[in-house]
Amino acid sequence: MVGPGESSVDILRAHDGVKRVPSPKVEMVIKPNFLTAEHCEELMRLIDLDRRPSTLADENGDVAFRTSETCDLKPEDKAVRELEAMLTHFTSIDPAYGEPLQGQRYEVGQQFKDHTDWFNPGGQDWEKFCAKSGQRTWTFMIYLNNVEAGGATRFKMIDKKIQPERGKIVGWNNRNTDGSGNAATLHHAMKVRKGTKYVITKWYREAPWRG
Ligand SMILES: O=C(O)CCC(=O)C(=O)O
Ligand SMILES: [Fe+2]
């Protein structure tokens, strides 16, 4: 048994079509066709309706570090509600532990350079991002479309490059077994070379989400 805020590779692998990425350093799974094409289309439409420049925790002075746009998806939209329910079923994580769903959109040349999704406990923004809800635990990301060229997510520490593919979900545990941030989860949303890339990101926390 795991706690209400937890998932595990075993829980995830109990679903059809889920494969573990074979790395001893990161607990990571992938499942193609998690979402239907229609569901992806609707989520892309919602992202297009309401976008803002993406932001960074721990600003590092590199204005080219994260150049995409972000959409804070509205929990009341049907496609968003349905996705939340699917994620709860898939991950077994109590939805109270989840941050609100976000969409990310990358045009040609846009990227998000090497980063981890867990926050640096010594970082300038630790208090702001983690005081209420704790550290990030699991990340789940869904690719909403096929990208003509570029736009892969590269995990260089484990030599893994994930290609955007409509409806595919990837999930990973951001922590080491002692709960600290796992440096091997470092990843880079590589530049889109042709087309536009749309993804949805879902981050879970150690404690129920309170902002
Ligand atoms: O778009 C991607 O491939 C990765 C996005 C990402 O790493 C993030 O939003 O934290
Ligand atoms: Fe990330």
Q: How many H/I helices?
A: 4
**What low-confidence regions span 5 or more consecutive residues with pLDDT below 50?**
none
The overall strand count is: 14
CATH superfamily: q2cbj1_9rhob like domain
Q: Looking at CATH, which topology would you report?
A: Jelly Rolls
Topology as a string of helices (H) and strands (E):
HEEHEEHEEHEEEEEEEE
Report how far apart the termini are. Answer: 27 Å
Shape: globular
Major sheet summary line: 8 strands, antiparallel
- At the first level of CATH, what is the class? Mainly Beta
Question: Which band does the percent of strand residues land in?
Answer: 25-35%
Summarize the structure.
With 211 residues, this protein is α+β, with helices and mostly antiparallel strands.
